[in-house]
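Q: AAA family ATPase, please. Structure only.
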Amino acid sequence: MGMFVNPGNSAFQVALNSEIYVDKTGLLEYTNKVMNTLQGYICNSRPRRFGKSITANMLTAYYSKGCDSKEMFSNLEISKTPDFEKRLNKYDVIHVDIQWCMEPAGGADNIVSYISEKTISELKEYYPDVLTENLVSLPEVLSKINTETGTKFIVIIDEWDVLIRDKAADQKIQDEYIGFLRGLFKGTEPTKYIQLAYLTGILPIKKEKTQSALNNFDEFTMLSPGKLAQYIGFTEEEVRELSGSYHQEFEKVKRWYDGYLLRDYQVYNPRAVVSVMLNSEYKSYWSETASYEAIVPLINMNYDGLKTAIIEMISGAAVKVNTATFKNDTVNIQSKDDVLTYMIHLGYLGYDQVKKMAFVPNEEIRQELITAVNCKPWNEMLMFQQESENLLEATLDMDSVAVANQIEKIHNEYASVIQYHNENSLSSVLTIAYLSAMQYYFKPVRELPTGRGFADFVFIPKPEYKNDYPALIVELKWNQNAQTAMEQIKEKKYPSSVLDYTGNILLVAINYDKATKEHQCIIEEYEKAESL
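A: Structure for AAA family ATPase:
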């Protein structure tokens, strides 16, 4: 049992010893299936706090010859599969944590030589009769062992992208590291000695430079999780079960920590869920492990539409994003879309793969983004927040003239990048305009199913503000009139959808007249006893 070669299972045992462990060993069924195939090269990227290292430790504990893990896995999901014992602790495993290696290596300059020297030294203990020469290339050593013994290796690299992220501007370090990965994994020779390769990190494989080096890897990302979606975080079913066991209100947990839409799964941040279960404290646990300072320079980049997009998403809307332009590094960020794509990989935004839209996934992240915005204040943001508060106050005061004027002002002064073309444009501006409502209300529900149709916006107050703030049901019209919008609210019984959520309800009807370029508004209070 070595440090890099055939490690033991103690690291994974720590996870199993913890009060909360959610069984993700089903992933092993997939890796067993693709071993020794062209699909056996896997890069599974995800944000911090999403269990990357636990997964790498699990793979090591299951496959490594350096330990006996039968009892450890005997009650877990993988034990129910036919290949459980066939694959268990049967392989030579090389497990390297690039982040950990930085310090003992003496810095990024020495990472490749440090990993190579230490791994070769340990391999000599296992294959002394084979490694009689003084070889310094790890790929060459693995090839030699395979040629003389037929042995194939499982290679697991945790935090594989540390040098790509942290040393992106250092060309020499990048070139050496990329060359090392190319030699280890790419070409005909590695297919002889690689049984399974598993890389885990935050970023997908870097485009351009490593495309030719590592394009043989299947990538599973926050943009395209594929078959591994349910293993990237906690699923809704798993969180619901934990909420029951720890007597937490599931809907509250969902509001705070849900939102990552990965294929068919609603995925939750594991670290945050575990923390709230153990501590019963609903807050942002993000900054404890991943500082918002990482995104402050990003959201302050001078790209057209970036700040408007951030404000719109904080307000509860989703925005279109072209993820194809991002080069998977921090040096070649050149547009709003690149910034938003990077934030998706970092976990600060969710992504709808079908609609190609980014959004703020939950209350935890919303708070982090607001803190990041305020960390380096946007003057326009500070002024905008005041205008938004004025709009909310006018709405609550049922001052329809002031509401119409305020929406018009916000569009002209703060959201002019959104050009008025249709009702969707009006929706985008309205989403931004009511940003201040997020302090008192949940994320606005768009097109909430109601009595006989869909309301454009429904703002439901948070429980602590239920007695002080009414629910808001907002209907928008484009080039018609506000009265038509109000009649639709009543005829289609929109308030019926929120009667169980709050006491008072305000009905807000808004129209934009294309000819006069003016907004009109009508606000009425809805009485529960009233018959619509």
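A: Brief note, in case it's useful. The chain is about 40% helix and 15% strand.
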